[in-house]
């Protein structure tokens, strides 16, 4: 059997945009293909694994730092019912610390446990897209992953965050970071495709997927499940498998696939231009 090329993805997105939903479903898709998958939750809410563990809270890196859990890899990694492993960063209590620092601690921990990490052929970082804090850039800064995917909706605030993520990915000090694509997780299913296409083009990336808003996802999350468990025959499952297949075909970071973000002024002009192009009432 031909050995698969190791695949490491760093998925960013504004809080609440659905990046953890996307990451959890991608992880299941890859596991169903027989890959050895490690899903790393880098959000202080530690919610990446909720759909995979039936809502059960796993141990976190913060638990390790505060002495609630041991230091070994086995103390922190949890095997999900889907057959993949998850490790959550966790975060401090509100107002009492820095979530980005916890992500940097995770990356140091992974470096120290490189032998265990090398046992996986697919690693997915689910990272909060608040890049005001440099700690959230740690997976790129440590060189643990170089292929960036951005989850965004069609809303202006989400596009603003996506552009900021691209600005970080394009920083010269981050060697060989590549923009794998933009995953649009829609708030409204009537979002104009030409605006999504124009935005992706301006950032120098492809649209990896456009995921419609579907109540089956919300129903599954309320049950602490993925759509694969909750509604195995739902169309959304096929959409996630299609996205996973596209990512696998790309095969990781591509030389020269640098992001081309907009400046703040260019972003404002982009929003103004495309709002002006909205069709008027019939």
Which key phrases capture this entry?
single chain; 282 residues; alpha/beta; eight-stranded mixed beta sheet; 12 helices; 8 strands
Give an overview in words:
The chain is of the alpha/beta class. It is 39% helix and 16% strand. It has 12 helices and 8 strands. It has an 8-stranded mixed sheet with strand order 3-4-2-5-1-6-7-8, sandwiched between helices. Strand 7, helix 8 and strand 8 form a beta-alpha-beta unit. Helix 1 crosses helix 11. It is globular, with a radius of gyration of 18 Å. It starts with 6 loop residues before the first strand and ends in a 6-residue tail after the last helix. The model has no long low-confidence stretch (mean pLDDT 90).
How is this fold's topology laid out?
Layout: E1 7-13, H1 19-32, E2 37-42, H2 61-65, H3 73-76, E3 78-79, E4 85-88, H4 99-112, H5 114-117, E5 122-128, H6 138-141, E6 147-152, H7 156-169, E7 178-185, H8 193-203, E8 207-211, H9 215-222, H10 227-230, H11 235-250, H12 264-276
Parallel strand pairs: 1-5, 1-6, 2-4, 2-5, 6-7, 7-8
Antiparallel strand pairs: 3-4
